[in-house]
Design goal:
Elements: E1 2-4, H1 16-21, H2 23-28, H3 30-45, E2 53-57, H4 63-71, E3 74-79, H5 82-88, E4 94-97, E5 111-117, H6 126-134, E6 137-148, H7 156-160, H8 169-174, E7 181-189, H9 194-201, H10 212-219, H11 225-244, E8 252-259
Parallel strand pairs: 1-4, 2-3, 2-5, 3-4, 5-6
Antiparallel strand pairs: 6-8, 7-8
């Protein structure tokens, strides 16, 4: 079931064809699976266990939404892209069409946790998005935000998917100013991936006449099976260090904030 809260233009945030055409590729990719696994571990560390009520804002291809449901959470997916939500729709699943650049419903449900994983970098006003998402939390609930890190690594890959910016810890923390939330911590993720991504992103992979989805897919080309397994292993080995906050760099940053 898809609830309608507000209607926006998906292409203003990310080319909708990327979301619609590349779902199968993304759902097999080790990065998205690793991010979903890290998020589940983080929720558990925060004491937010199934069957807690969790909103996956900007649910996109549904990788994290699937993982939450499999774990037993009462998960709800939200996205601005109606076409994407139609691909995710199935009996027993609640989805919400909403544009984070517009006010959310005053009578909206409240959640034990709200996830905004690689969402706010697509928006001009990241602070307003954080404020709106924070208002959907139950008292004591947690907002978990992840963003691409290291502004110097901004590349064609960022531009084609509608990123406005990449972050450092202080710029991510600034997105929580005046949100009414208490920022508990930020931490890096994907340190081992930094040199690999620097080499890849230094190259332009687009070709004349290609669509955004085609360019995006070039950047996401899956490695051979053995290399894909190694990528998954590298993420698993780094997971505990990331959650402890002991990494000094990474391709992503996470932030955890609580509502009083």
């Amino acid at each position: 079931m898809i609830e309608h809260w507000s209607e926006g233009i998906a292409d203003d945030n990310m080319a909708e064809d990327i979301l619609v055409e590349l779902g199968d590729v993304v759902r097999r990719h080790p990065w998205w699976r690793a991010r979903a696994a890290l998020t589940l571990r983080l929720l558990s560390d925060l004491g937010i266990e199934p069957p807690a009520h969790v909103l996956d804002a900007g649910c996109g291809w549904g990788v994290t939404l699937d993982a939450l449901e499999a774990q037993g959470y009462r998960a709800v997916g939200m996205d601005v892209s109606r076409r994407t939500l139609e691909h995710l729709d199935r009996p027993g699943r609640t989805l919400i069409e909403a544009d984070l650049t517009q006010p959310l419903r005053a009578d909206a449900p409240r959640y034990d946790a709200v996830l905004a994983l690689d969402v706010i970098e697509h928006l001009d006003d990241d602070r307003e998005a954080v404020r709106r998402l924070g208002a959907l939390l139950e008292p004591g609930g947690a907002l978990v935000v992840s963003v691409p890190a290291l502004p110097a690594m901004f590349s064609e890959f960022d531009a084609v998917q509608g990123h406005r910016r990449r972050y450092l810890p202080d710029t991510l923390a600034a997105a929580f100013d005046d949100s009414g939330l208490r920022l508990d911590r930020t931490f890096w993720w994907g340190r081992w991936l930094v040199p690999l991504l620097r080499r890849q992103r230094a190259r332009t992979l687009s070709r004349p006449g290609e669509t955004p989805a085609q360019i995006y897919q070039r950047h996401l080309t899956l490695p051979p099976k053995a290399a894909s397994w190694l990528l998954s292993l590298a993420f698993r080995l780094e997971e505990k260090s990331a959650l402890r906050g002991s990494l000094g760099s990474g391709t992503s940053l996470f932030a955890v904030a609580r509502r009083s």
